[in-house]
Amino acid sequence: MAEQVRSTKLKFKGERVKKKRKRDTGEDEPTTSSGKRKKADDKDPETWVLPESVAELRGPTFIIHASDPSPISINLNSTTSRISLQPLDKDKSSDGPEAPKLLDRTPTDVSQVWVTTRVAGSPTINLRTGTGEGKFLSCDAHGLVSADRDARGPQEEWTPVVLPDGMVAFMNVYEKYLGVDEVAGGNLTLRGDSEEVGFAERFWVKIQYKYQKEAHEEEKKKKDGLATEPVIDESSSNRIYQSWGAGRSVVSVEDKKELKRARKEGRLAEAMLDRRAKLKSDRFC
C-alpha cells in the first residue's frame, strides 16, 4: 500500500478545516437568472495575497523585506523572545532548486507570522506575535523596536501606508517609520526612527485571502447602506500622505502643523482645568 503524502501547508491554531466536496465533471455549472454562468470563487481561503488597501490588513500577516542578497522576514525568536530578521534563502544550497520569486514567498514557520488586529474604526493597527504568549510589536521614543509587551498602548500602535507599488510602510505614534538598519558586524535590525520612506522602510506584506474577502464584503455592505459607519471615519482621521520620486512618502507639513496645534491647545485646556480645580479646593480649605 502506497504511503500517504503528508501536507506541508502551514496551519494555525483555531483555524477551521475546509472539507473538500467531490464534483461530477459532467454537471453544468450554476447559472444566474440572466443565463450567464455564475463565477465560483474557487480560491483557497488560506492563500497568501497582497493587500490592496489598509482595511484589508487583518489576521495572520507575513512581513518581508527585499534585502540583498537575500530577502528577509520579520520573525520572533521564541527562545530569546526577541525580534530577528531571518534570510529566507538560508537553507538553499547552490545545487538545490531555484528560490521562488519574492512575491511568491509564503511563511514556512509560525515564527514568521504576526497577527494584525485593530480597534473598530481606528486607522491604526497592532501587530502581535503568532507564537508564544502573544506579545505586541512596539517602538519607543528613541526608535528601539521590541516585542515584549503584554498589553497594547500608544507605543504599540502602527499606522500602515499602502504605497503606489503595493508595498507597505509602518508609521509609529512618534510619526517615524519602521525600517531595516545595518549595525556593527553587518547584522540587520529593526529601527523605528526614520523621518521618511526609502528602500529600508518599504515592506512586502501578505495576508490570507479570506481576510481580504472579508474586508471587501464589509466595504460592500457600507456602500449598500447595510452597515453603519464607525464612530471614527478612517478617511477623515487618517493622516494625509504625499508621494513623489521613487515612491518616497512623507507626512504633509500642513498636517504636522495641525497636529502640533491640537496638542498645544489640549495641554492648555488641561492646565486651565487643573488651575480651576485647585482654586476651588483652596476656597473650601
UniProtKB/TrEMBL annotation:
<dbReference type="InterPro" id="IPR008999">
    <property type="entry name" value="Actin-crosslinking"/>
</dbReference>
<keyword id="KW-0539">Nucleus</keyword>
<dbReference type="GO" id="GO:0005730">
    <property type="term" value="C:nucleolus"/>
</dbReference>
<dbReference type="Pfam" id="PF06229">
    <property type="entry name" value="FRG1"/>
</dbReference>
<comment type="similarity">
    <text>Belongs to the FRG1 family.</text>
</comment>
<dbReference type="GO" id="GO:0071013">
    <property type="term" value="C:catalytic step 2 spliceosome"/>
</dbReference>
<dbReference type="GO" id="GO:0051015">
    <property type="term" value="F:actin filament binding"/>
</dbReference>
<dbReference type="InterPro" id="IPR010414">
    <property type="entry name" value="FRG1"/>
</dbReference>
<protein>
    <recommendedName>
        <fullName>Protein FRG1</fullName>
    </recommendedName>
</protein>
<feature type="region of interest" description="Disordered">
    <location>
        <begin position="1"/>
        <end position="48"/>
    </location>
</feature>
<feature type="compositionally biased region" description="Basic residues">
    <location>
        <begin position="8"/>
        <end position="23"/>
    </location>
</feature>
<feature type="region of interest" description="Disordered">
    <location>
        <begin position="85"/>
        <end position="104"/>
    </location>
</feature>
